[in-house]
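Researcher: Please predict.
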Amino acid sequence: MKITRALAATATLTALLVGTGVAGAAADVTWESSPGPHTFSVDVTPVSYMVDSSGDAALRVEHIVDENGRALLCAQFDRPSPSGTQLRPLGRATPQLAYLANQLEHPELNPDLAGLDAMQQYYVLQFVAHMYDSPHFADFTDVQDGQRVADPHGLIPRITAVKARADAASNGDFFEGHKISVSEPVPASALDAEGFWLSDPVTVSVQAGSAQVTVKPTWNEAATAAGTTLVDAATGAPLEAVTDGAQVRLKTSADKLAGRAGRVGVTLDASFDGGTAKIGYLYGGDESVQQIVGYDEITYNEHLSTDISTAYTPVLGSLSGTKEGPAGERLAGVEFTVKDAGGTALTTVTTASDGTFTVPDVPWGTWFIHETKTPQGYLPLSQPVEVTIDGAHRRIDLPTITNDKAPVAKGLSTINTGRPPSDNALNPALVIAAGVLLGGGVGGGAWCVGRRVTQAMGH
Protein backbone atom coordinates (compact mmCIF):
# COMPACT_ATOMS: atom_id res chain seq x y z
CA MET A 1 0.00 0.00 0.00
CA LYS A 2 1.37 3.40 -0.96
CA ILE A 3 1.74 5.79 1.97
CA THR A 4 2.10 9.49 1.21
CA ARG A 5 3.55 12.12 3.44
CA ALA A 6 0.09 13.59 3.91
CA LEU A 7 -0.72 10.75 6.31
CA ALA A 8 0.01 11.25 9.97
CA ALA A 9 1.73 7.85 10.16
CA THR A 10 4.56 9.12 8.00
CA ALA A 11 4.70 12.72 9.13
CA THR A 12 7.93 12.07 11.01
CA LEU A 13 9.48 10.56 7.89
CA THR A 14 8.68 13.67 5.92
CA ALA A 15 10.09 15.85 8.67
CA LEU A 16 13.21 13.74 8.56
CA LEU A 17 13.63 14.16 4.83
CA VAL A 18 12.99 17.90 4.54
CA GLY A 19 16.03 19.96 5.32
CA THR A 20 18.51 17.10 5.23
CA GLY A 21 20.43 18.66 2.41
CA VAL A 22 19.78 15.55 0.36
CA ALA A 23 16.29 16.09 -0.87
CA GLY A 24 15.77 19.70 0.08
CA ALA A 25 12.65 21.49 1.20
CA ALA A 26 11.16 21.36 -2.29
CA ALA A 27 11.30 17.58 -2.47
CA ASP A 28 8.09 15.79 -3.31
CA VAL A 29 8.21 12.42 -1.54
CA THR A 30 5.95 9.39 -1.69
CA TRP A 31 6.71 6.56 0.73
CA GLU A 32 6.18 3.03 -0.54
CA SER A 33 6.58 1.29 2.81
CA SER A 34 6.63 2.06 6.52
CA PRO A 35 8.16 0.49 9.66
CA GLY A 36 6.26 -2.12 11.60
CA PRO A 37 6.48 -3.63 15.11
CA HIS A 38 9.28 -6.01 16.15
CA THR A 39 9.81 -8.52 18.93
CA PHE A 40 13.11 -8.13 20.76
CA SER A 41 15.10 -10.48 22.95
CA VAL A 42 18.46 -10.80 24.71
CA ASP A 43 20.47 -13.64 23.16
CA VAL A 44 23.64 -13.68 25.33
CA THR A 45 24.65 -12.98 28.89
CA PRO A 46 25.62 -9.33 29.46
CA VAL A 47 29.23 -8.75 28.50
CA SER A 48 31.89 -6.22 29.39
CA TYR A 49 35.46 -5.51 28.40
CA MET A 50 35.95 -2.96 31.18
CA VAL A 51 36.91 -3.70 34.80
CA ASP A 52 36.47 -1.75 38.02
CA SER A 53 39.07 -1.05 40.69
CA SER A 54 38.61 -4.54 42.19
CA GLY A 55 39.04 -6.29 38.84
CA ASP A 56 35.36 -7.12 38.33
CA ALA A 57 33.49 -6.51 35.08
CA ALA A 58 32.12 -2.98 34.79
CA LEU A 59 29.80 -1.17 32.40
CA ARG A 60 28.24 -4.34 31.04
CA VAL A 61 25.87 -4.38 28.06
CA GLU A 62 23.30 -6.83 26.72
CA HIS A 63 23.16 -8.10 23.14
CA ILE A 64 19.71 -7.25 21.75
CA VAL A 65 18.26 -8.86 18.61
CA ASP A 66 14.89 -8.78 16.87
CA GLU A 67 12.81 -11.75 15.69
CA ASN A 68 15.00 -12.05 12.60
CA GLY A 69 18.22 -12.19 14.58
CA ARG A 70 19.24 -8.69 13.57
CA ALA A 71 21.33 -6.97 16.24
CA LEU A 72 19.94 -3.71 17.64
CA LEU A 73 20.83 -1.31 20.44
CA CYS A 74 19.01 -0.25 23.57
CA ALA A 75 18.62 3.43 24.36
CA GLN A 76 17.93 3.46 28.11
CA PHE A 77 20.56 2.04 30.42
CA ASP A 78 18.49 2.35 33.61
CA ARG A 79 15.54 0.15 32.51
CA PRO A 80 15.16 -3.63 32.08
CA SER A 81 15.63 -5.12 28.63
CA PRO A 82 12.42 -5.81 26.64
CA SER A 83 13.31 -9.47 26.05
CA GLY A 84 10.39 -11.33 24.50
CA THR A 85 8.35 -8.15 24.15
CA GLN A 86 6.86 -6.82 20.93
CA LEU A 87 7.57 -3.11 20.58
CA ARG A 88 5.99 -0.66 18.17
CA PRO A 89 7.75 2.13 16.27
CA LEU A 90 7.51 5.37 18.25
CA GLY A 91 9.18 7.73 15.81
CA ARG A 92 12.55 8.58 14.47
CA ALA A 93 15.64 8.30 16.58
CA THR A 94 18.24 11.02 16.85
CA PRO A 95 20.79 11.05 14.03
CA GLN A 96 23.41 9.96 16.55
CA LEU A 97 21.54 6.81 17.60
CA ALA A 98 20.47 6.15 14.02
CA TYR A 99 24.13 6.26 12.97
CA LEU A 100 25.05 3.66 15.60
CA ALA A 101 22.17 1.36 14.63
CA ASN A 102 23.15 1.55 10.96
CA GLN A 103 26.73 0.59 11.82
CA LEU A 104 25.45 -2.77 13.08
CA GLU A 105 24.77 -3.91 9.52
CA HIS A 106 28.42 -3.90 8.46
CA PRO A 107 30.59 -3.01 11.46
CA GLU A 108 33.65 -4.41 9.71
CA LEU A 109 33.47 -1.49 7.27
CA ASN A 110 33.93 1.04 10.06
CA PRO A 111 37.66 1.83 10.36
CA ASP A 112 37.26 2.44 14.09
CA LEU A 113 35.99 -1.13 14.55
CA ALA A 114 38.41 -2.93 12.24
CA GLY A 115 40.35 -5.76 13.90
CA LEU A 116 37.78 -6.38 16.65
CA ASP A 117 35.70 -9.52 16.91
CA ALA A 118 31.94 -9.31 16.39
CA MET A 119 31.09 -9.02 20.10
CA GLN A 120 33.72 -6.33 20.69
CA GLN A 121 32.33 -4.38 17.74
CA TYR A 122 28.83 -4.65 19.19
CA TYR A 123 30.09 -3.66 22.64
CA VAL A 124 31.73 -0.48 21.31
CA LEU A 125 28.54 0.57 19.47
CA GLN A 126 26.28 -0.19 22.45
CA PHE A 127 28.70 1.55 24.81
CA VAL A 128 28.55 4.71 22.68
CA ALA A 129 24.73 4.51 22.61
CA HIS A 130 24.72 4.49 26.41
CA MET A 131 27.06 7.49 26.49
CA TYR A 132 24.02 9.55 25.42
CA ASP A 133 21.89 8.41 28.40
CA SER A 134 24.34 7.42 31.18
CA PRO A 135 26.93 9.65 32.89
CA HIS A 136 28.97 6.58 33.86
CA PHE A 137 29.36 5.43 30.28
CA ALA A 138 30.03 9.02 29.22
CA ASP A 139 32.79 9.43 31.85
CA PHE A 140 34.11 5.83 31.76
CA THR A 141 33.39 5.52 35.50
CA ASP A 142 32.15 2.53 37.48
CA VAL A 143 28.51 2.63 38.53
CA GLN A 144 29.33 1.42 42.05
CA ASP A 145 32.36 3.43 43.15
CA GLY A 146 32.46 6.20 40.58
CA GLN A 147 36.09 5.48 39.76
CA ARG A 148 37.39 5.40 36.19
CA VAL A 149 37.30 1.89 34.80
CA ALA A 150 40.31 0.04 33.43
CA ASP A 151 40.49 -0.76 29.72
CA PRO A 152 42.56 -3.94 29.30
CA HIS A 153 41.46 -4.44 25.67
CA GLY A 154 42.22 -0.88 24.53
CA LEU A 155 38.64 -0.12 23.49
CA ILE A 156 38.34 3.39 24.91
CA PRO A 157 40.17 5.08 21.98
CA ARG A 158 37.87 3.23 19.58
CA ILE A 159 34.82 4.21 21.60
CA THR A 160 35.93 7.84 21.56
CA ALA A 161 36.44 7.77 17.79
CA VAL A 162 33.03 6.18 17.11
CA LYS A 163 31.40 8.72 19.44
CA ALA A 164 32.93 11.57 17.42
CA ARG A 165 31.51 10.12 14.19
CA ALA A 166 28.09 9.68 15.80
CA ASP A 167 28.14 13.27 17.08
CA ALA A 168 28.70 14.49 13.51
CA ALA A 169 25.88 12.42 12.01
CA SER A 170 22.89 14.07 10.34
CA ASN A 171 19.58 12.77 9.09
CA GLY A 172 20.71 12.97 5.49
CA ASP A 173 23.34 10.30 6.11
CA PHE A 174 20.70 7.58 5.96
CA PHE A 175 19.25 8.35 2.55
CA GLU A 176 20.61 7.25 -0.78
CA GLY A 177 21.47 10.82 -1.53
CA HIS A 178 19.41 11.41 -4.65
CA LYS A 179 20.62 14.54 -6.31
CA ILE A 180 20.42 16.51 -9.53
CA SER A 181 22.73 19.43 -10.17
CA VAL A 182 24.33 21.34 -13.02
CA SER A 183 27.88 22.55 -13.52
CA GLU A 184 26.73 26.11 -14.28
CA PRO A 185 23.18 27.25 -13.50
CA VAL A 186 23.57 30.59 -15.33
CA PRO A 187 25.71 29.97 -18.43
CA ALA A 188 26.64 32.71 -20.88
CA SER A 189 25.20 32.65 -24.41
CA ALA A 190 26.48 33.67 -27.82
CA LEU A 191 24.75 34.22 -31.15
CA ASP A 192 25.81 31.71 -33.80
CA ALA A 193 26.09 32.27 -37.54
CA GLU A 194 22.57 30.93 -38.15
CA GLY A 195 20.94 33.43 -35.81
CA PHE A 196 20.44 31.18 -32.78
CA TRP A 197 21.44 31.98 -29.25
CA LEU A 198 23.43 29.03 -27.85
CA SER A 199 24.37 28.84 -24.19
CA ASP A 200 27.74 27.56 -23.08
CA PRO A 201 27.74 23.79 -22.40
CA VAL A 202 26.27 22.72 -19.07
CA THR A 203 26.99 19.31 -17.53
CA VAL A 204 24.10 17.64 -15.70
CA SER A 205 24.88 15.36 -12.75
CA VAL A 206 22.31 12.87 -11.46
CA GLN A 207 22.78 10.61 -8.41
CA ALA A 208 20.08 7.96 -8.31
CA GLY A 209 21.34 5.19 -6.02
CA SER A 210 19.05 2.19 -6.42
CA ALA A 211 16.19 4.31 -7.77
CA GLN A 212 15.07 4.56 -11.37
CA VAL A 213 15.36 8.16 -12.51
CA THR A 214 13.83 10.17 -15.34
CA VAL A 215 14.83 13.77 -16.06
CA LYS A 216 12.69 16.01 -18.26
CA PRO A 217 12.85 19.75 -19.06
CA THR A 218 10.07 22.18 -18.12
CA TRP A 219 10.35 25.64 -19.68
CA ASN A 220 9.44 28.96 -18.16
CA GLU A 221 7.03 31.33 -19.91
CA ALA A 222 9.72 33.36 -21.69
CA ALA A 223 11.42 30.24 -23.01
CA THR A 224 8.14 28.78 -24.21
CA ALA A 225 7.30 31.98 -26.09
CA ALA A 226 10.75 32.03 -27.68
CA GLY A 227 10.65 28.35 -28.64
CA THR A 228 13.76 27.56 -26.60
CA THR A 229 14.96 23.97 -26.80
CA LEU A 230 17.46 21.83 -24.92
CA VAL A 231 20.06 20.37 -27.26
CA ASP A 232 23.03 18.07 -27.05
CA ALA A 233 26.10 20.28 -26.62
CA ALA A 234 28.14 18.30 -29.14
CA THR A 235 25.63 17.39 -31.86
CA GLY A 236 22.97 20.07 -31.47
CA ALA A 237 20.25 17.41 -31.50
CA PRO A 238 17.14 18.20 -29.41
CA LEU A 239 16.84 16.37 -26.08
CA GLU A 240 13.59 15.24 -24.48
CA ALA A 241 15.22 13.44 -21.55
CA VAL A 242 18.52 13.95 -19.76
CA THR A 243 20.86 11.39 -18.22
CA ASP A 244 23.73 11.65 -15.77
CA GLY A 245 26.75 13.31 -17.35
CA ALA A 246 24.83 14.81 -20.27
CA GLN A 247 26.24 18.04 -21.70
CA VAL A 248 23.46 20.34 -22.85
CA ARG A 249 22.89 23.82 -24.26
CA LEU A 250 19.88 26.14 -24.34
CA LYS A 251 19.05 27.11 -27.94
CA THR A 252 16.82 30.06 -28.84
CA SER A 253 16.09 31.83 -32.12
CA ALA A 254 17.11 35.49 -31.94
CA ASP A 255 14.33 36.32 -34.40
CA LYS A 256 11.74 34.76 -32.09
CA LEU A 257 12.92 37.33 -29.54
CA ALA A 258 12.72 40.08 -32.20
CA GLY A 259 16.33 40.86 -31.41
CA ARG A 260 15.46 42.06 -27.91
CA ALA A 261 17.32 41.35 -24.71
CA GLY A 262 15.78 38.74 -22.46
CA ARG A 263 16.27 35.74 -20.21
CA VAL A 264 14.96 32.22 -20.66
CA GLY A 265 15.09 29.31 -18.26
CA VAL A 266 14.43 25.61 -17.91
CA THR A 267 13.76 23.44 -14.88
CA LEU A 268 15.17 19.93 -15.04
CA ASP A 269 12.62 17.80 -13.20
CA ALA A 270 13.99 14.51 -11.88
CA SER A 271 11.71 11.68 -10.72
CA PHE A 272 13.42 9.05 -8.57
CA ASP A 273 11.38 5.85 -8.14
CA GLY A 274 12.22 3.08 -5.67
CA GLY A 275 14.93 4.70 -3.58
CA THR A 276 15.77 3.33 -0.14
CA ALA A 277 16.45 5.00 3.20
CA LYS A 278 17.63 3.37 6.40
CA ILE A 279 15.64 5.38 8.88
CA GLY A 280 16.63 5.20 12.53
CA TYR A 281 13.64 4.45 14.80
CA LEU A 282 12.87 4.17 18.45
CA TYR A 283 10.75 1.16 19.33
CA GLY A 284 8.99 0.95 22.65
CA GLY A 285 6.05 -0.25 24.69
CA ASP A 286 5.24 1.07 28.15
CA GLU A 287 7.69 2.81 30.47
CA SER A 288 8.72 -0.43 32.19
CA VAL A 289 11.21 -1.54 29.55
CA GLN A 290 14.01 -0.07 27.53
CA GLN A 291 13.42 1.57 24.20
CA ILE A 292 15.27 -0.01 21.31
CA VAL A 293 17.15 1.80 18.56
CA GLY A 294 16.85 0.17 15.17
CA TYR A 295 16.51 1.04 11.55
CA ASP A 296 14.14 0.05 8.82
CA GLU A 297 14.87 0.18 5.12
CA ILE A 298 12.09 2.35 3.73
CA THR A 299 11.32 2.56 0.02
CA TYR A 300 10.35 5.96 -1.32
CA ASN A 301 9.85 7.93 -4.50
CA GLU A 302 11.17 11.43 -4.76
CA HIS A 303 11.00 14.46 -7.02
CA LEU A 304 13.89 16.92 -7.24
CA SER A 305 14.72 19.71 -9.65
CA THR A 306 17.40 22.17 -10.67
CA ASP A 307 17.33 25.24 -12.91
CA ILE A 308 19.32 26.59 -15.84
CA SER A 309 18.81 30.09 -17.20
CA THR A 310 20.65 32.31 -19.64
CA ALA A 311 20.38 35.94 -20.70
CA TYR A 312 20.43 37.44 -24.18
CA THR A 313 21.62 40.90 -25.18
CA PRO A 314 19.97 42.99 -27.92
CA VAL A 315 20.91 41.96 -31.45
CA LEU A 316 22.86 44.80 -33.08
CA GLY A 317 24.18 44.85 -36.63
CA SER A 318 26.06 47.18 -38.93
CA LEU A 319 25.70 48.62 -42.42
CA SER A 320 28.56 49.54 -44.72
CA GLY A 321 28.95 50.51 -48.34
CA THR A 322 30.74 52.59 -50.97
CA LYS A 323 29.51 55.55 -53.00
CA GLU A 324 30.76 56.04 -56.57
CA GLY A 325 30.08 58.11 -59.64
CA PRO A 326 29.30 56.60 -63.05
CA ALA A 327 32.98 56.43 -63.98
CA GLY A 328 33.92 54.63 -60.76
CA GLU A 329 35.14 57.73 -59.00
CA ARG A 330 34.68 57.58 -55.21
CA LEU A 331 32.31 60.21 -53.85
CA ALA A 332 33.10 61.85 -50.53
CA GLY A 333 30.67 63.92 -48.49
CA VAL A 334 27.54 61.98 -49.44
CA GLU A 335 25.13 61.98 -46.52
CA PHE A 336 22.86 59.05 -45.66
CA THR A 337 20.14 58.93 -43.01
CA VAL A 338 18.97 55.54 -41.74
CA LYS A 339 15.25 55.47 -40.92
CA ASP A 340 12.72 52.87 -39.83
CA ALA A 341 9.54 52.09 -41.74
CA GLY A 342 7.73 54.90 -39.94
CA GLY A 343 10.29 57.49 -40.98
CA THR A 344 12.00 57.88 -37.61
CA ALA A 345 15.70 58.51 -38.08
CA LEU A 346 18.19 56.23 -36.38
CA THR A 347 21.37 58.06 -37.39
CA THR A 348 23.05 60.03 -40.18
CA VAL A 349 26.47 59.25 -41.65
CA THR A 350 28.69 60.83 -44.31
CA THR A 351 30.98 59.06 -46.75
CA ALA A 352 34.70 59.41 -46.15
CA SER A 353 37.29 60.59 -48.66
CA ASP A 354 37.38 57.12 -50.20
CA GLY A 355 33.60 57.06 -50.57
CA THR A 356 32.99 54.50 -47.84
CA PHE A 357 30.53 54.69 -44.95
CA THR A 358 29.65 52.52 -41.96
CA VAL A 359 26.63 52.57 -39.66
CA PRO A 360 27.35 50.69 -36.40
CA ASP A 361 24.93 49.42 -33.73
CA VAL A 362 21.88 49.01 -35.95
CA PRO A 363 19.09 47.23 -34.03
CA TRP A 364 17.24 44.16 -35.28
CA GLY A 365 14.60 44.95 -37.93
CA THR A 366 14.10 46.50 -41.37
CA TRP A 367 15.73 49.85 -42.13
CA PHE A 368 15.76 52.29 -45.06
CA ILE A 369 18.88 54.18 -46.16
CA HIS A 370 17.95 57.60 -47.54
CA GLU A 371 20.46 59.75 -49.40
CA THR A 372 19.99 63.18 -47.88
CA LYS A 373 22.98 65.08 -49.26
CA THR A 374 24.65 64.65 -52.66
CA PRO A 375 27.85 66.22 -54.06
CA GLN A 376 27.41 68.98 -56.59
CA GLY A 377 27.07 67.67 -60.09
CA TYR A 378 25.50 64.34 -59.11
CA LEU A 379 21.93 63.20 -58.83
CA PRO A 380 20.69 61.78 -55.47
CA LEU A 381 19.08 58.37 -55.21
CA SER A 382 15.40 58.61 -55.98
CA GLN A 383 14.49 55.68 -53.67
CA PRO A 384 15.96 54.53 -50.35
CA VAL A 385 17.85 51.27 -50.03
CA GLU A 386 16.01 48.70 -47.85
CA VAL A 387 18.02 46.40 -45.57
CA THR A 388 17.10 43.96 -42.78
CA ILE A 389 19.10 43.15 -39.67
CA ASP A 390 18.14 39.77 -38.19
CA GLY A 391 19.75 36.92 -36.30
CA ALA A 392 21.53 35.51 -39.32
CA HIS A 393 22.29 38.88 -41.00
CA ARG A 394 24.00 41.22 -38.64
CA ARG A 395 26.71 42.72 -40.86
CA ILE A 396 25.30 44.09 -44.10
CA ASP A 397 27.87 44.90 -46.79
CA LEU A 398 26.01 46.84 -49.45
CA PRO A 399 27.08 46.63 -53.10
CA THR A 400 28.52 49.81 -54.54
CA ILE A 401 25.93 52.59 -54.75
CA THR A 402 26.37 54.62 -57.95
CA ASN A 403 25.10 58.14 -58.58
CA ASP A 404 24.70 59.45 -62.14
CA LYS A 405 25.93 62.91 -62.93
CA ALA A 406 23.43 65.73 -63.18
CA PRO A 407 22.79 66.98 -66.78
CA VAL A 408 24.35 70.29 -67.88
CA ALA A 409 22.95 72.92 -70.35
CA LYS A 410 24.06 72.51 -74.00
CA GLY A 411 26.06 75.41 -75.57
CA LEU A 412 24.24 77.88 -77.96
CA SER A 413 25.54 79.61 -81.15
CA THR A 414 26.26 83.30 -80.87
CA ILE A 415 23.55 85.50 -82.35
CA ASN A 416 25.03 88.15 -84.65
CA THR A 417 23.33 91.49 -84.00
CA GLY A 418 25.54 93.42 -86.32
CA ARG A 419 26.92 95.38 -83.41
CA PRO A 420 30.04 94.67 -81.44
CA PRO A 421 29.44 93.92 -77.80
CA SER A 422 30.09 96.65 -75.35
CA ASP A 423 31.10 96.45 -71.72
CA ASN A 424 27.57 97.26 -70.57
CA ALA A 425 25.67 95.22 -73.10
CA LEU A 426 24.64 91.69 -72.09
CA ASN A 427 25.22 89.06 -74.72
CA PRO A 428 21.79 87.70 -75.69
CA ALA A 429 23.24 84.22 -75.94
CA LEU A 430 24.21 84.31 -72.28
CA VAL A 431 20.73 85.42 -71.33
CA ILE A 432 19.24 82.48 -73.17
CA ALA A 433 21.75 80.14 -71.63
CA ALA A 434 20.89 81.46 -68.20
CA GLY A 435 17.26 80.90 -68.95
CA VAL A 436 18.04 77.27 -69.70
CA LEU A 437 19.85 76.86 -66.42
CA LEU A 438 17.40 78.71 -64.21
CA GLY A 439 14.10 78.28 -65.99
CA GLY A 440 14.23 74.65 -66.95
CA GLY A 441 15.42 75.11 -70.53
CA VAL A 442 14.03 76.37 -73.73
CA GLY A 443 11.42 74.11 -75.06
CA GLY A 444 11.86 71.86 -71.98
CA GLY A 445 15.00 69.95 -70.93
CA ALA A 446 15.45 66.16 -70.55
CA TRP A 447 16.88 65.14 -67.06
CA CYS A 448 17.91 61.61 -66.38
CA VAL A 449 18.84 59.99 -63.06
CA GLY A 450 20.15 56.50 -62.75
CA ARG A 451 20.72 54.20 -59.70
CA ARG A 452 22.45 50.83 -59.52
CA VAL A 453 21.92 49.09 -56.19
CA THR A 454 21.87 45.33 -56.01
CA GLN A 455 20.67 43.19 -53.15
CA ALA A 456 22.60 43.72 -49.96
CA MET A 457 24.62 40.82 -48.69
CA GLY A 458 24.27 39.93 -45.00
CA HIS A 459 26.83 38.40 -42.69
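Model: The chain has three domains: 3-176+277-300, 179-273+305-312, 316-407+447-458.
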